[in-house]
Amino acid sequence: MGTQATYHPLPVTIAYHDACHLAHAQGVRAQPRALLRAIPGVELREIVEGDLCCGSAGVYNVINPEPAAQLGDRKAGHVAAAGAELLVTANPGCLLQIASGLERRGVAMRSAHTVQVLDASIRGAGVDDIGT
User: Fold this and answer.
1) Nearest to 101 by CA among 91, 90, 111
2) CB neighbours of residue 95 within 10 Å
3) Which of 2, 3, 71, 104 has the most other CB atoms within 10 Å of its CB?
């Protein structure tokens, strides 16, 4: 099995967003959740319409800003409704798109890449050291 890092507790509720390139194109859905659930103290909350694209979609939000913003706002509403402290996804474009939608709604929620959460747990950092 090789070397495995020790996960330190990280008491945080996470809304996990499946990036389309992972979920739809590669079928990667369970693995990121399993990684996050392996961290003591993490509570994962599912997002309603989790399969819905956030509107980032590569350069879609640049080429078609209005429909992309509508998708982002819809996704942000579902993320906010999950009642989590932290939005996590494996795509920087998704993080920016959903964070913009949350900001337009007046919702203050930090966001982070999956690896940032794993890193914080491995280092024993606090929840406040995760994301933006």
Assistant:
1) 111
2) 23
3) 71
Helix (H, G, I), strand (E, B) or coil at 51: coil
> What is the pTM for the complete model shown?
0.89
Which position has the token pair 């932290």?
86
Q: How far is residue 83's CA from residue 97's CA, in Å, rounded to a whole number?
A: 19
In this predicted structure, the answer to whether residue 123 has a pLDDT above a threshold of 90 is yes
Other CB atoms within a 10 A radius of the CB of residue 124 amount to 12
List % helix, strand, coil for the chain (3-state, nearest 5). 45, 15, 40
Residue 89 near residue 114, CB atoms below 8 Å: yes
Q: If we measure between CA atoms, which residue out of 81, 107, 84, 79 comes closest to residue 14? A: 84
Q: How many residues does the chain have?
A: 132
